[in-house]
Amino acid sequence: MKRFTLKEIGQQLNLSPGTISKALNDSHEISAETKKLILDFTQKINYIPNFSAKSLKTGRSNTLAIIVPFISSSFFFDFYEDISHILSQTNYKLILLQTFNDEKKEKEALELCVQSNIEGVIISPVKNDSSLSLLFYMMEQVCPVIIFDRINHQLDTFKIGIQNNKVIYQATEEMIKNRRENIILLLCKDIGGNVSRIKGYKDALFNAGVPFKEENIIEISYSSPKDNIDDELESKISTLLNRPFAPNALLSTTDTLSLKVLHILNKLKVKIPDDMNLIGFSNTPFANSLNPSLTTITQPTQLMAEKSVELLLQMLKKKNKKNYFEFETYFLDCSIEHRKSTSSL
Amino acid sequence: MKRFTLKEIGQQLNLSPGTISKALNDSHEISAETKKLILDFTQKINYIPNFSAKSLKTGRSNTLAIIVPFISSSFFFDFYEDISHILSQTNYKLILLQTFNDEKKEKEALELCVQSNIEGVIISPVKNDSSLSLLFYMMEQVCPVIIFDRINHQLDTFKIGIQNNKVIYQATEEMIKNRRENIILLLCKDIGGNVSRIKGYKDALFNAGVPFKEENIIEISYSSPKDNIDDELESKISTLLNRPFAPNALLSTTDTLSLKVLHILNKLKVKIPDDMNLIGFSNTPFANSLNPSLTTITQPTQLMAEKSVELLLQMLKKKNKKNYFEFETYFLDCSIEHRKSTSSL
DNA sequence: CTGAAAGCGCTTACAG
DNA sequence: CTGAAAGCGCTTACAG
């Protein structure tokens, strides 16, 4: 077994390399007999084409990229799996890149895409203006870019995200209906969607006539699921619990925080749901097997993935038509999955 | 902003493309001043090289591949993350490919590696002889291959796996010491390591003088974590539970099965650990937050990842020396993490 | 220290 | 329907 080139195959079959190439690409220029001859032979020798040569010549790679902050975050993981599954039914391959919430790594990831002739990018960017000029350049000259999840980014393109304020409003409203009015809102610091989340929270309180307390908003600063924020989180929660009017509900707005806070509340012997209602933001499939099972806000991951791919493929089809698209931002609805960590008093 | 080629940069600076290339690769042939001139300019214009051209010319890609059955399985996920982290400290890039336990997909994945000039592969193969000739060809002519996890594969190379029989022996022994003698051993059908697992299980029973019962071994056939095996699993467990001498311990040997079985036992109102001790095979970080927290057999994932990369890099260094290596198989030790799903009677 | 030139393995416009 | 030839953007052995 040895690796053949088109030239060598041509020599073996007394045909030119160009003819072999055309046959393998099923060109209408080549006769059926010649095609069969060539295909039989290439199959026999298990011809494996040289991807770099093809890509260099054509400028195409048949590969899309998905760029996420952390693949270990279950939402991003699910999203990746969904994209991966959808693309497996097309001719496109997919590569996964992580930024670790680091602008430099993001730039490297995008440059890798340019280097590798990537044909389309789906990205949840590090910050609202991260890699802005590079992304703009890519949109103009390299390939279409779709932004998901962190849709406050300034690039003008299609964006797919969720109705943060709406779902936080619903969750808050539900807790109030359950007679839980002293609600902690737990946020990851400096995330684009926080403004919208706080708005949903405040609006729900306001409409129910519940006074807003500044101290009930906890922001934790971390950039990786592996950052050690447990102590800080525990101390902030303890402080609130030891106040005269201890909170009786907690709404956690990221995946990472939800699991940590459950663990901490268990450790602090806070009874869930009796003493504290808990709603997490999470896509973990284990929510059902947690102790107690966790009521979660679930993002419509699959829908987001489908829409992202759909829009990207649309843009790929019209690739040479500048200003062809009216870019839109899609806000999808989340749902609340009720489990044992919430109940009425 | 526009994409430059070396030729264009040469024109701008009145230098030849070759000189630009050498300067960017920090060749000793180029003077310090010229290098500075070129680097300043390429930085200014944000020169992004064409990867395909480089790869075509050199036959190298600076990229390694990891091929796993399912990235959604937490062991493979952790392993991938570890490999990814280790390689981020080198010059190598990493691509992730999944086989979904499908030999055809595995072949495609490996061919993609060949096409893309991948320089090394770390794989957990589908079956003991899957893609054997292709893997052999790759080892001979393309790049080194390391096998991990499913180390019964017939390819002659370095392999990194675990001491299945030893850890299953320990877990079984522990259960017996806890006076749990009627132990279900739960296996995924047709996995290479099962022989060794069953041996560990039987040996521990034998040495403790506990009679072996064929019916206590349950094999479930599935190839994906998403396969719907819940009903089958539930019915098989129910059957055993309804026997005159109901089992009082369960040892689950895969990640997927461990979480499912916990869920089913909870559903069947079996009290854990009182009525049933449960040890799972799992790397999930949530084991602590499960209901009840799950005693697990944990694979030394990071060690396995480190060893895999170490061996691969060693082989890469000596790439042109055939028969340079005495291939070995490494069997690493697992540990048992005790949590609330096990206790003595 | 710099440059000219060949060539990696494909594809494709063009010729016949 | 098939082939000859140019060229994608790099690298590198060789010349000077």
TrEMBL record, chains A, B:
**Domain named HTH lacI-type: residues:** 4-58
Query: What PROSITE patterns does the record tag this protein with?
Result: HTH_CROC1, HTH_LACI_2
Query: From what superkingdom does this record's organism come?
Result: Bacteria
Cite the GO molecular-function annotations of the record.
DNA-binding transcription factor activity; transcription cis-regulatory region binding
Q: Per the record's keyword annotation, is Ion transport included, yes or no?
A: no
Q: List the Pfam families.
A: LacI, Peripla_BP_3
Q: Which residues form the HTH cro/C1-type domain?
A: 2-48
Supply the InterPro entries for this chain: Cro/C1-type_HTH (IPR001387), HTH_LacI (IPR000843), LacI/GalR-like_sensor (IPR046335), Lambda_DNA-bd_dom_sf (IPR010982), Peripla_BP_I (IPR028082)
Name used for this protein in its record: LacI family DNA-binding transcriptional regulator
User: Which organism encodes this protein?
Assistant: Sphingobacterium paramultivorum
